[in-house]
């Protein structure tokens, strides 16, 4: 009896110690996640394809660090049995509230395009939409009235948000809600997978650039107007810059033209474009142009 009682006490003591450690470790890991740092007492067991949500397992606890495409960014803590599916309703409620706010603010991503200014006079400008803009399939040139003494110059690139219909005149006409100058030109990438999916060397235009640019899982060419360049030539000869690439994908993601997935711990963002993906890694100081189906796990292998 005494031996059994001693065993029970030992087991109970171990359980209590593990429970206390679990609580302490869990609190530390949660605090680190809130600071966008990697947990140290739990291991990453899952990465969801919802934008970057991750699950971690520790001693008796589980953490789900939500990071969905819609912006649901919560940290949930529970026992090992806690599941992602437990929070589907909460995510849907968040998305519904977000959608309602967007509708209330009359926000729309359908009436936005990027263009180059062909002609600029006192009260109107004529623009040519970028080649990858869907609107260019119908309207090669568009005339826009300008107000408030705004000035534009031929060759400048602009972001146009408009309302109403575009008239079928020559050139076509539209009423703009806003016309904002942008600091990137009309270019697009073409990613071609190769049989040997090797990574290419990183390229910089100059040593003062923060980011280098590289192709992954295939070859990349750059289309600028009617000209096509290899990625290496485009970067080294200053046809495009790393800063232009970043500004372009950020603006396109903001306008809802491409998908954006943020991975806080890896300090990286994947922008999913039509036919390719662009990964901007603060951790590596690199811009990686890869196939459209590239997963964050593949980038993690490079980072760590």
**Helix and strand pattern:** HEEEEHEEEEEEEEEHHEEEEH
Average pLDDT reading: 85
Q: Any idea how many domains? A: 3
Widest sheet: strand ordering: 5-6-7-9-8
Secondary-structure-based class equals alpha+beta
Name the poorly predicted regions.
Answer: 105-109
Hey, roughly how much beta strand do the residues contain? 25-35%
The overall strand count is 17
Number of helices: 5
State the shape.
elongated
Q: What helical percentage do the residues reach?
A: 25-40%
Q: Main β-sheet: number of strands, strand sense, barrel status?
A: 5 strands, mixed, barrel
What can you tell me about this protein's structure?
- The chain is an alpha+beta fold.
- The chain has three domains: 2-104, no CATH class; 113-182, OB fold (Dihydrolipoamide Acetyltransferase, E2P) (Beta Barrel); 187-303, no CATH class.
- It has helices spanning 2-34, 88-104, 231-236, 242-254, 296-303; strands at residues 43-47, 54-57, 62-65, 75-78, 112-120, 124-129, 142-145, 157-167, 172-182, 187-192, 212-215, 219-224, 227-230, 259-263, 268-272, 277-281, 286-290.
- Strands 5-6-7-9-8 form a five-stranded mixed β-barrel. Strands 11-17-16-15-14 form a five-stranded mixed β-sheet.
- β8 (157-167) and β9 (172-182) form a beta hairpin.
- The protein is elongated, with a radius of gyration of 25 Å.
- The N and C termini lie far apart (54 Å).
Summarize the structure.
The chain has 304 residues and is of the alpha+beta class. The protein has five helices and 17 strands.
Task: Walk me through the topology.
Layout: H1 2-34, E1 43-47, E2 54-57, E3 62-65, E4 75-78, H2 88-104, E5 112-120, E6 124-129, E7 142-145, E8 157-167, E9 172-182, E10 187-192, E11 212-215, E12 219-224, E13 227-230, H3 231-236, H4 242-254, E14 259-263, E15 268-272, E16 277-281, E17 286-290, H5 296-303
Parallel strand pairs: 7-9, 11-17
Antiparallel strand pairs: 1-2, 2-3, 3-4, 5-6, 5-8, 6-7, 8-9, 10-12, 12-13, 14-15, 15-16, 16-17
């Amino acid at each position: 009896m005494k031996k059994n009682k001693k065993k029970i006490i030992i087991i109970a003591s171990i359980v209590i110690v593990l429970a206390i450690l679990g609580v302490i470790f869990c609190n530390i890991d949660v605090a680190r996640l809130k600071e966008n740092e990697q947990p140290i007492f739990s291991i990453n067991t899952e990465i969801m394809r919802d934008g970057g949500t991750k699950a971690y397992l520790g001693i008796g606890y589980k953490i789900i660090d939500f990071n969905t495409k819609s912006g649901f960014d919560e940290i949930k803590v529970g026992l090992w049995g806690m599941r992602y599916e437990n929070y589907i309703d909460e995510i849907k409620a968040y998305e519904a509230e977000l959608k309602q706010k967007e509708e209330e603010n009359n926000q729309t991503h359908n009436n936005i395009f990027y263009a180059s200014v062909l002609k600029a006079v006192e009260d109107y400008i004529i623009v040519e939409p970028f080649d990858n803009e869907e609107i260019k399939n119908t309207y090669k040139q568009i005339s826009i009235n300008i107000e408030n003494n705004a000035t534009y110059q031929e060759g400048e690139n602009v972001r146009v948000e408009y309302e109403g219909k575009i008239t079928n005149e020559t050139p076509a006409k539209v009423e703009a809600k806003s016309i904002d100058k942008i600091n990137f030109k009309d270019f697009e990438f073409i990613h071609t997978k190769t049989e040997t999916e090797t990574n290419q060397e990183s390229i910089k235009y100059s040593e003062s650039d923060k980011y280098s640019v590289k192709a992954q899982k295939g070859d990349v060419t750059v289309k600028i107007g009617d000209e096509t360049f290899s990625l290496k030539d485009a970067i080294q000869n200053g046809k495009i810059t790393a800063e232009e690439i970043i500004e372009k994908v950020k603006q396109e993601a903001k306008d809802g033209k491409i998908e954006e997935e943020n991975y806080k711990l890896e300090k990286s963002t994947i922008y999913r474009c039509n036919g390719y993906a662009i990964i901007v890694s603060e951790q590596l100081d690199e811009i990686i142009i890869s196939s459209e189906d590239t997963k964050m796990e593949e980038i993690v292998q490079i980072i760590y």
